[in-house]
Specification:
The chain has two helices and six strands. With about 130 residues, the protein is of the alpha+beta class.
């Protein structure tokens, strides 16, 4: 069976949803194409997240990142898209994606994007809602 790139991100249940802990994945072989020149861009992608109820399955993440190999994408756009797709897949408590692109024209580019999930806040019984003026 031949392995092929895929935009599907598989997930599995968080084995410890009651605890906040961080998962860090370093993906040193990311490539996409420059949308202006068609030349390859190489990057190290670091993903940090605190899972909520789901975690991303690593092989599907590898195939997902591989799917960008033949796509033209600006660095800023692709890192934001990766964050959006991961957030949609696992709905984390917190997630940060850092793309550190190798030199191109004498310039290194690092793009950092972050998602902070909403945590339910308990309201004290004696608190009062602010009155509108």
């Amino acid at each position: 069976m031949k392995t092929v790139p895929s935009k599907t991100l598989d997930v599995f249940p968080n084995p410890n949803p009651e605890r906040d802990y961080e998962i860090h994945m370093e993906c040193p072989e990311f490539t996409c194409l420059c949308p202006k020149t068609g030349q390859p861009d190489f990057a190290v992608i670091n993903i940090f997240y605190t899972p909520n109820n789901l975690c991303v399955e690593l092989k599907s993440l590898k195939l997902y990142l591989w799917s960008y190999r033949d796509e033209g994408a600006f660095h800023e756009a692709v890192i934001n898209k990766i964050l959006d797709d991961l957030v949609n897949a696992v709905n984390p408590r917190h997630m940060k994606v850092v793309g550190k692109f190798l030199v191109r024209g004498g310039i290194y580019t690092t793009v950092t994007v972050e998602h902070t999930g909403s945590k339910k806040r308990k309201v004290a019984k004696n608190s009062k809602k602010a009155k509108k003026s």
